[in-house]
Write a structure and sequence with these properties.
Elements (H helix, E strand, L loop, with lengths): L2 E5 L6 H11 L15 E5 L3 H10 L3 E3 L2 E6 L12 H12 L2 E7 L15 H31 L4 H18 L14 H6 L8 E6 L12 H12 L3 E5 L1 H7 L4 H11 L5 H12 L2 E7 L3 E8 L4 H8 L1 H5 L1 E8 H7 L2 H6 L4 E3 L9 E7 L2
Bound molecules: guanosine-5'-diphosphate.
The site of guanosine-5'-diphosphate has 16 residues, from helix 1 and helix 8.
Function: ATPase that binds to both the 70S ribosome and the 50S ribosomal subunit in a nucleotide-independent manner.
GO molecular function: ATP binding; ATP hydrolysis activity; GTP binding; metal ion binding; ribosomal large subunit binding
Family: Belongs to the TRAFAC class OBG-HflX-like GTPase superfamily. OBG GTPase family. YchF/OLA1 subfamily.
Length: 365
């Protein structure tokens, strides 16, 4: 499964946030095939559409889509020098699909800051520089190999060389490779380099409880936003400490707590959704009387591949999919009514599934 890794300097609130994730997380018993790794927290993806479909269909069971966060501990500073735990830190980052970078944006004299002052931009830079150094090393290694092959006019090598030469000066200037706009034909080459600073990143501004309602006007958050914009990254603000409490509440108490904080949605729900879309994930639904369920797929996937998310047999034997959009189904109230109104389509092998499609797969066994 795709996973987002949580990173940050010590004492910024990572463990607090990760605790909130595991407390809010799904019961392992409901997902018997999931691996139980203490560094992984699996949460449900909040989705109002699933609640609405449940009201319409009244199934025996409703199963939300899930998403995994990985807690990346380890020493940050000096990581790119390749010593012990630092090395592990980088190899853990290498394994995740997206990065949630927690940044301390709260003042609290009782909680020591490792650098002795609150400065979100310098904090971000400390971690990013380690990743940039590691990437620079990868790029240099590739360069020495590829530049030789490129001399033979090998087409692929020439193309890769051009990409490497585009990336290198940016890294040398202390900037992440994600700040570069690559041409479409360069993207597969970039992907093949497995760099750390091209992974999608979400900056998580950890603000004080009394700042979270108006986080956009918090000076620290503003700084983080400006920086994120410069490297095509996103920012969300949360109060990790409050999230830890919210995660233990039932729905009603949660609503009261959120109201008291002055926010509409919990920071954790925002984080889950942002990470989900950051990874290019989307949701389709199956809606039977037994079970209404949300399934995760990658944007751009075709109907057979999406069927394969449920079971490989569904992909192999795929014939077609009865498909209706969530909006149309909701408007007409039931599958037969939607059919009557001509809103249910029969889609074939080439159909690119859309977020919110409600699907019934027909397949040969
Ligand atoms: P980590 O080292 O990044 O994992 O940081 P922790 O999650 O252990 O947090 C370090 C300290 O900061 C702990 O004492 C937390 O209770 C505290 N902390 C975390 N989030 C907040 C917050 O939003 N506001 C305040 N005031 N303290 C926080």
């Amino acid at each position: 499964a795709l996973t987002a890794g949580i990173v940050g300097l010590p004492n910024v609130g990572k463990s607090t946030l990760f605790n909130a994730i595991t407390k809010a997380g799904v019961e392992a018993a409901n997902y018997p095939f999931a691996t139980i790794d203490p560094n992984v927290g699996m949460v449900e993806v909040p989705d109002n559409r699933l609640d609405e479909l449940t009201k319409l269909v009244k199934p025996k069971k409703t199963v939300p889509a899930t998403f995994e966060f990985t807690d990346i501990a380890g020493i940050v500073k000096g990581a790119s020098k390749g010593e012990g735990l630092g090395n592990k830190f980088l190899s853990n980052i290498r394994q995740v699909d997206a990065i949630c970078h927690v940044v301390r944006c709260f003042d609290d004299e009782n909680i020591t800051h490792v650098e002795g002052r609150i400065n979100p931009l310098e904090d971000i830079e400390i971690i990013n520089l380690e990743l940039i150094f590691a990437d620079l090393e990868s790029v240099d290694k590739r360069l020495s190999r590829v530049s030789k092959i490129a001399k033979t006019k090998d087409k692929e090598a020439v193309a890769e060389l051009a990409v490497l030469e585009k990336i290198k000066p940016v890294l040398e200037a202390g900037k992440s490779a994600r700040s570069i706009e690559f041409a479409d034909e360069e993207l597969p080459i970039v992907k093949g380099l497995f760099l750390l600073t091209t992974k999608p990143v979400l900056y998580v501004a950890n603000v004080a409880e009394d700042e979270v309602a108006d986080a956009d006007n918090n000076d620290y958050v503003k700084q983080v936003k400006d920086f994120a914009a410069s490297e095509n990254a996103e920012v969300i603000s949360v109060c990790a400490r409050a999230e830890e409490e919210i995660a233990e509440l039932d729905d009603e108490d949660k609503a009261d707590f959120l109201e008291a904080l002055g926010i509409e949605e919990s920071g954790l729900d925002k984080l889950i959704r942002a990470a989900y879309y950051l990874l290019g994930l989307a949701t389709y639904f199956t809606a039977g009387e037994q079970e209404v369920r949300a399934w995760t797929f990658k944007n751009g996937m075709k109907a057979p591949e999406c069927a394969g998310v449920i079971h490989t047999d569904f992909e192999r034997g795929f014939i077609r999919a009865e498909t209706v959009s969530y909006e149309d189904l909701k408007e007409h109230g039931s599958m037969p009514a939607a059919k009557e109104a001509g809103r249910v389509r029969l889609e074939g092998k080439e159909y690119i599934v859309k977020d919110g499609d409600v699907m019934l797969f027909r397949f040969n066994v």
